[in-house]
Amino acid sequence: MIHYFTDPVLAAPTIGSMLMCLIAAFVGTFSVLRKQSLVGETLSHASYPGIIISLLLAKILVGGELLLLPLVGASVSALLGVWCINLLTKKYGVHSDSALCVVLSSFFGVALVLLSCLQSSFPTLYRELQSYLFGQAATQTNVHILLYSVLLVVVLGAILCYYRSIKTVIFDPEFAKTIGINSKVVTALLLSVTVLAVVVGIRSLGVVLMSSMLIFPAVSGRLWTSRLEYVLLLAALFGMVAGFFGVYFSHELSIRQDTSFPTGPMIVVSAASIFLVSSFLSPEKGLAFRYMRRKQFRRLCRQENLLKVLWKVCSKKNSSLVSQDEIMEHIQAVSLKRDLTALRKKGWVKACGSDMYELTPEGAHWGKKIVRLHRLWEVYLVEYCGVGSDRVHPSAEEMEHIITPEIELELEKLLDHPRQDPHMQPIPAREVNPLLP
């Protein structure tokens, strides 16, 4: 893969795509955290009429394309879109999402009409303008790398200079007002760098795909961590990886297959793949780990329910020994052997013979605690929530496994230390486990 950075043909598209995706990741992170993911999509579509008009003027006036003229036209058109959004939301009271959709569809519709008018009069320009829809990443040169590098410095400089203010405005706008941070300035700054990133990135990724690179890296990074610093770093990493592999797969597949694979769409596919992997494998929010945690919690609930049954049977018999047949009278035997083995490993139960089990002092403590939490919650539902005593058991069966010691103390204080549940059963007294420090 090293030759992608050294080859005279591949180096510029590879480095340029990675830089552009890095910039989009930084800017997109703030848009995602501010719940304004649609802003990038709107700005990219709103800039398309400006690109068409600027390239048409360049064709008519100088007979060719000027490098910065499409950027100027796209910037003017995007800023006009921002002005229309503010006009709709502030003056006419249109909801922000609706205003974004109106501007997006209107500007893009105007652009397509203009594009259709050029189809017969300027066929070469028409094909060139069509390429802006999905990007021209494969045709980047060293000039584009220089342009992206300058933009990266501008974006990083703006973020570093106003990082604390940006962070405060995003997560606690009321506190930002209290300490004197001008939220309008911060919002204008974020909007400005977003416009710059979108306008410059259209050359690589296109109007249709640009917004995806503002969203995918940021959302992928957010799945792995909740700290803004790490989200920015991970988003930047994911963006660069997507940029590189987009160029890599586009080139390799185009060589091996008869069909051409455009670089811009391949970058987006790479970013989407990173998001899918993150959504499955991230430790906190990944589907795989969430499934494992749910499965582990259900297993824990099943074991605690078994421990609760053991304590009730032993309390009724006034003995710590209980047979398997007695257990099966109160609980289903689907995973009984497995759950008893788990309780033995925890030291809560001892095996005494083939089908006899002894509840240890520590097991008796935890069984008693679960029963206590169950009955406390039933009292709370009846006295404070107005739930009938015949309907409180299912909720208590769920809550007994998740009530913390702090909530237990609050319930006991709130209920004035009740001694009986709504079914006139005694509530075990709270005690400290003597076997624990």
What layout of secondary structure does this protein have?
Layout: H1 3-6, H2 11-33, H3 38-46, H4 48-61, H5 69-91, H6 96-121, H7 123-134, H8 142-161, H9 163-171, H10 173-178, H11 183-224, H12 228-256, H13 263-281, H14 287-317, E1 321-323, H15 324-328, H16 336-346, E2 349-351, E3 356-359, H17 361-384, H18 393-399, H19 405-414
Helix pairs in contact: 2-8, 2-11, 2-12, 3-5, 3-6, 3-11, 4-5, 4-6, 4-7, 5-6, 5-11, 6-7, 7-11, 8-11, 11-12, 11-13, 12-13, 14-16, 14-17, 17-18
Q: Any overview of this molecule?
A:
This protein has 437 residues and is mainly alpha-helical. It folds into two domains: 283 residues, ABC transporter involved in vitamin B12 uptake, BtuC (Orthogonal Bundle); 70 residues, Arc Repressor Mutant, subunit A. The protein has a three-stranded antiparallel sheet with strand order 1-3-2. Strand 2 and strand 3 form a beta hairpin. The longest helix is centred in the middle third of the chain and has 42 residues. The radius of gyration is 32 Å and the shape is elongated. It starts with a helix and ends in a 23-residue tail after the last helix. The model has no long low-confidence stretch (mean pLDDT 88).
What is the number of strand segments?
3
**Strand proportion:** under 5%
Major sheet strand order: 1-3-2
Give me the secondary-structure category: mainly alpha
What labels would you give this structure?
mainly alpha; 19 helices; Arc Repressor Mutant, subunit A
Question: Short description, anyone?
Answer:
With 437 residues, this protein is mainly α. The chain contains 19 helices and three strands.
